[in-house]
Specification:
The chain has helices spanning 34-40, 76-96, 111-123, 139-144, 168-179, 198-214, and strands spanning 7-10, 21-27, 49-53, 57-59, 62-64, 68-70, 73-74, 99-109, 129-133, 154-160, 184-190. The protein is α/β, with parallel strands linked by helices. It has one domain (7-213): Alpha/Beta hydrolase fold, catalytic domain (Rossmann fold), CATH 3.40.50. α4 (139-144) links the parallel β9 (129-133) and β10 (154-160). α2 (76-96) crosses α3 (111-123). The longest helix has 21 residues, at 76-96. It is globular and about 45 Å long. This is Alpha/beta hydrolase-fold protein. GO terms for molecular function: hydrolase activity.
């Protein structure tokens, strides 16, 4: 079954279709929607193309990309389908908008962080970097998925030290897993629960600006 995602695109103020811009594909948490993530990234929308993707499954008053059997245990059929369809969406959007394929970033919170990390593992060098906020990597992905080389993947992982849903140990595990695969891993914890603090937001905005700017020889930070 094909999925037609509802999504919202924020283009840079001086958008020029003849140029190539870095892009952030933003994935929300369980029961939320694309607008929640766009709010976190509003500061970057002057220089980046920002695309918030809504999960296709209803979840309470919001949406989900996959349903779960229990905490940390996705329904495999839903998960596999979302992985395939999100990869196709990323490739489609890259042809539809003035996106630089060498500066494609995934950013997600909770369920969105799960998918951001897993998509990076399966898409490999086709993704430049990820920001994973309070997520985990399902065991079946590590054991059964075909994981690509992510040696040059830029990784920003953060986790709440008091997260009652996904314990901090999951963030530690994410860090250790990616540290063995990539040379460019940043891991930070915050005295927060299952959410994104202002300090966390400021840190990943600074990080993604610097990383995207570093891909352009002779350029400084994006302002």
């Amino acid at each position: 079954m094909s999925i037609d995602y509802v999504y919202d695109v924020k283009l840079p103020d001086e958008y020029n279709s003849e140029m190539k811009y870095p892009v952030i594909f933003a994935l929300h948490g369980l029961g939320s929607n694309e607008q929640d993530m766009l709010g976190l990234l509003s500061e970057l929308s002057t220089d980046f193309i920002v695309i918030g993707i809504r999960g296709h499954l209803p979840q309470g008053s919001g949406f989900a990309y996959f349903h779960i059997k229990s905490i940390g245990n996705p329904i495999r059929e839903h998960f596999d389908q979302s992985m395939q369809q999100l990869e196709q969406f990323i490739e489609m959007a890259t042809t539809q908008y003035a996106i630089d394929p060498a500066r494609r970033y995934l950013l997600g919170f909770s369920q969105g962080a799960v998918l951001s990390m897993c998509l990076a593992l399966t898409m490999g060098e086709r993704i430049k970097g990820i920001v994973a906020l309070n997520g985990y990597i399902p065991t079946f992905v590590k054991d059964e998925y075909w994981i690509q080389s992510v040696t040059d993947l830029s990784v920003f992982i953060s986790h709440g030290e008091h997260d009652p849903i996904f314990p901090k140990q999951l963030g530690d595990n994410n860090h250790e897993f990616f540290r063995q695969l990539s040379h460019h891993v940043t891991y930070t914890t915050y005295p927060s629960a299952h959410g994104v603090s202002l300090e966390n937001q400021q840190d990943f905005i600074r990080w993604i600006r610097q990383d995207a700017a570093a891909q352009i020889p002779g350029k400084g930070d994006l302002q």
